[in-house]
Structure formats: structure tokens, C-alpha cells
Amino acid sequence: MTGSRHVVLLFGEILVDRFPDREVLGGAPFNVARHLRAFGCAPVLVTRIGQDAAGARVLQTLERSGLATHGVQLDTIYPTGMVDINFTSEGHRFDIIPDQAYDHIHPRLSRMAALAANPELVYFGTLAQRAGSHRALRHLLRAAGGQRFFDVNLRDPWVYVDRIQWSLQHADIVKANDDELERIARLLNIEEISAEAQAKVLIKRYQLRGMLVTRGEAGAWWLEDSAEPITAVSDPITDIRDTVGAGDAFSAVFMLGLLHGWAVPLTLQRAHHFAGAICRIRGGLPEHNDFYEPFISDWHMNPSE
Predict the structure, then answer these.
(1) What are the phi and psi torsion angles at 35 (to 5°)?
(2) Is 117 left (phi over 0), alpha (psi -120 to 50) or beta?
(3) Given strand 91-96, what is the order of strands in its sheet?
(4) pLDDT, tens digit, 9 for 90 and up, residues 290-301
(5) What is the pLDDT of residues 188-219, one digit of tens each?
(6) Using one digit for the tens of pLDDT, what is the confidence trace for 30-73?
(7) Contact of 9 with 113, CB cutoff 8 Å
(8) Phi–psi pair at 124, nearest 5 degrees
(9) What does the DSSP 8-state code read for residue 244?
(10) Whose CA is closest to 122, among 173, 81, 160, 73?
């Protein structure tokens, strides 16, 4: 039982991030779910892993983190997802291996998980739609209520215009970084030059509630229909170790703000602050839960509610 905690349904990939010196679990839906759980929500992941050593480790990690496992499907054919991460002078580079278990999420099982969860918010991205799992997402969204949060994560070569359009049509809130917004505008033949004008076109064309655009160290802005953008005025991020998972951290806190009814400027400020803290550690997730305690205290939250 989740009690009064906010239920969030997250669809997509759980995978193993292979850094040059170690392996950690990752994938945007998993990272977001892990943060939401630490902040007192009840996230339910709908994903698929292999019946292999990596899959067993995924299940152990989910259970240790207090995350529900009933939405995790097991695959006897395809392996648990893998991504090789290498660091360059321009940042981190992903080598995402194709045809993994999360590419074969089962539609009927996804629908059942959605019906059982009855979520307030549904989170989905782009990577898990690159193959057959797109059908499972269609079934899940038809079965799930709640607002829909589309987190754009464009990963070449798996960038498909039809999937982007479909996702925009089925979203309420869209989050993208400034580079992704520019690329979406180009792919969808939006002629406006400024990011704000491009976002306004997307909001009107797809009848979105709003659009969240992140800008790295420069913070982020939020735009609703017929309104001026709300921009976070935040301190610069210092002592950056790497930026892996920073966008996922931002998404998680923005969603937290939606669930708790925080004012948008406050939500943006808190999301930027938390994402900056993630940039000061190695990888996208902290090793221990005490990492979250200062934020829980500052935001006057009770994660056991």
C-alpha cells in the first residue's frame, strides 16, 4: 500500500551504465524514480530486464531502494540494457547498445501495471520508443489517468520524427534542453528562431499545458500558453564532476513540485539546486540516502507521508 504518497508511473529503460572504471544502474526513468522515492513519492516503473546477472542486480537494487518491482518484466531472450559512457573534452558520450530487453516491453503487462497503479502523473521519454516498446507505451497511456510528462532525451541514431510527434500529441507537459528544443523545431519545420517562440508553437500545436526548457548551468524556464516564460534566477553550479543524470534530477524535482503544488519559480529554483548537487558527484545517483536529507529538511518535506 502506498497510503497517501503520490503515485507516479514511469515507463522506459533501466540499464547498466558502464563507465571506464565501474558499472552503475541508470536510465532516465530509473534515475527519476529513485529520486522521487527518496523524496517520499511512490514511483512504479514499467520496464523490462533480462533474466541475467545484470537483471538480478537491477531487482536487488530496486528492492533495496524501496522501489516497487511489480511493473518490471523479465525477458528470457533479450539481455538487460547496457550503455557505455565515455568522457571527452566536450562532456560525456553515450554508446547505447541496441535490441535490449527494454526494447521489448510487453503491451498487456504494461496496461495491467497502469491500471493497478492509478497514478497522478505518468512519465515517459524517447529512448524506450525506438523499437517495439512504443506499442506498450500506447497501451499504458490508454489505461493510465493522470498528467503526462514527456521527457525528451534525443539519442542518435534513434531519433524518429513520427515518434516525437506522437509523444507531443499524448503529453501534457514537455521537458527538453535548449539543444533538443532547437532540434525538434528543425525536425518539425517550425520556422520561428527564438527558443521561446518555438516553445509557443509547440504548446499551441499540441495543446500542451506547458513546456520546461533546461539550459545547463544557466538554469531553466517554464512556459504556459498565453503567458510569459518564468525563469529561474539561480546561483551558478560550481565544482562540477560530471553532468550525467543532471537532467533526470531536474525532471524529478519539477515533477515533485507539480505533485506538491509548489509555485513554479520555487520549483525551478529547487530543481536547479538539486541538479547542481548531482553534478558534484560521480554518475547520476548518490550512493547513500543521506544525500537527500538536506533537501528534505530545506523543503520542509516528510518522505514517510
Answers:
(1) -65, -45
(2) alpha
(3) 23-26, 15-18, 81-88, 91-96
(4) 999 999 999 988
(5) 999 999 999 999 999 999 999 999 999 988 88
(6) 999 999 999 999 999 999 999 999 999 999 999 999 999 999 99
(7) yes
(8) -150, 160
(9) T
(10) 173
Distance in angstroms (rounded) separating the CA atoms of residues 58 and 65: 11
Distance from CA of residue 281 to its chain's centroid? Answer: 19
Task: Specify the pairing of strand 173-177 against strand 147-151.
Answer: parallel
3-state secondary structure of 293: helix
- How far, in Å, CA of 174 to CA of 16, rounded? 26
The beta-carbon contacts of 226-233 under 8 Å, at least 24 apart in sequence, are 229/196, 229/199, 230/264, 230/265, 230/268, 231/268, 232/265, 232/268, 232/269, 232/271, 232/272, 233/269
Q: How far apart are CA 175 and CA 209, in angstroms?
A: 11
Q: How far is CA 183 from CA 156, 176, 178, 203, 251, in A?
A: 12, 10, 9, 16, 20
**In this predicted structure, what is the pLDDT of residue 83?**
87
For the chain, the average pLDDT equals 92
Identify which of 81, 58, 77, 141 has the alpha carbon closest to the alpha carbon of residue 107.
141
Burial 37-68 (b: 16+ CB within 10 A, else e): bbbbbbbbbbbbbbebebbeebeebbeebebb
Find out whether 5 and 38 touch, Cβ atoms under 8 Å.
Answer: no
Beta strands in the chain (DSSP E): 7-11, 15-18, 23-26, 42-50, 72-75, 81-88, 91-96, 121-124, 147-151, 173-177, 210-214, 220-224, 230-231
